Structure formats: structure tokens, C-alpha cells
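agent: user wants the structure for Mannose-6-phosphate isomerase type II C-terminal domain-containing protein from marine sediment metagenome. delegating to structure tool.
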Amino acid sequence: MTSNKKSDIENFKKGIKEDIRPWGKFRSFPYKQARGIKIITVKPGETLSLQYHLHRSEFWVVLDKGLEVTEGKRVWQPEEGEEIFIPRKSPHRLRCLGSKPARVMEIWIGNSEESDIVRLEDEYGRE
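agent: tool returned. relaying C-alpha cells verbatim.
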């Protein structure tokens, strides 16, 4: 995987394919570029740390309403199904504003481990 953060995202985007079927459609993602795939569930009123990653970009698909996303200087409440690209080294976080847990599917783009987290702010005292 290239080390250029814009190339990481552009290469990933080029690999996303959409196929229309009589019953609807499906989107497939370039899983060979993914280092990790997970579902993040945020409890009502809780917030992930404001963080960035040195070695990976992330691609998020919002699964539920009720989230607030911070990416760089932008803060918004995404729609269910919204796709979000988080470039390497870009500060980001999730917050659950709703009354039910809310989820995001996260795909890592780039060679990284769970420990590749630089926390800028954290409500739980982690560094």
C-alpha cells in the first residue's frame, strides 16, 4: 500500500464497485487493501477519543442514526448509510447523540495495528 494518504483513499475509492440487480443493488469494497474491518458501537451519550492514525486511513459506513462525526474541522450528524473517508493523520471522533447505541462499519486502509492511535483528547483518561 502506498504511503501517500491521498493515494490511499483514491486507490480505495477506485476499487469500490456497485452492481445493480432487479431487487436493488450491492456495493463491494476492495478488501485486499483492508488491514482491518470492524463494527464500532457507541453507547448513548458516549464519545470516542479525538484521535488520528499515523499509518492508516479509514473508510466508515454509518449504520445507524444518532451519531456526530468530527473529521478535521468539520463536525456533522451523518445520515444512515453515509460513507466517510478519514485520511491518515486527520483528527476524528464519533459521539452518540441518540437515545440508542449507534454503529459505524470501519475499514482500515493501510498497514496498521490497533495501537496506531494518537489521542488528542480523551474523556476516559487514556493517552
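agent: one observation worth passing along. Residues 5-121 form a domain with the Jelly Rolls fold (CATH 2.60.120.10).
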